[in-house]
Amino acid sequence: MNGVQRSNNYDSNRSALVAVDNNCAYLSLAREFISSLHRPSAIFDTQFDWCYCIACYKTEWDDVLQAGEAFYVIPRDWVRLGIHIDHVVEQIHGIWDS
Q1: Would the pTM of this model clear 0.85, i.e. be above it?
Q2: Measured over all CA atoms, what is the biggest interatomic distance in the chain, rounded to whole angstroms?
Q3: Is the pLDDT at 59 greater than 70, yes or no?
Q4: Is 37 inside a domain boundary?
Q5: Confidence grade of residue 68 (pLDDT, cut at 50, 70, 90)
């Protein structure tokens, strides 16, 4: 999926913007770096890779988004690479509960 996904945030009147562009050179460079670490690919979950470079996340878009009751500051010029979380560990330790 390329481009920007816009989804309504029902907790506010603002929109959530998610930058996803698999053709982005900045994102490709970050993935190349991860590949150079020679870690098992099962550790990573590319569906959660998000790029916040100027091409993927436009300067006129919000710097802060609301997610539920929390605020998320957009890490401009950064790439977020998804890491796989084991579902059993997630449930046992309740890692998303706090």
Answers
A1: no
A2: 43
A3: yes
A4: yes
A5: confident
- Closest by CA to 63, choosing from 55, 53, 73, is 73
Number of structural domains in the chain: 1
Query: Strand 70-73 and strand 79-80: pairing?
Result: unpaired
CA dist 96 and 6 (Å) reads: 24
Q: Spell out the residues 6+ positions from residue 97 whose beta carbon is closer than 8 angstroms to its own.
A: none
Cα 31 to Cα 22, 38, 90: the distances in Å are 10, 12, 25
Question: For 15, phi and psi rounded to 5 degrees?
Answer: -105, 150
Q: Look up the domain containing 86 and give its range.
A: 3-93
Strand-pair category, 3-8 with 15-20: antiparallel
Please give the distance of CA 29 from its chain centroid, rounded to a whole number.
Answer: 16
Within a domain: 71: yes
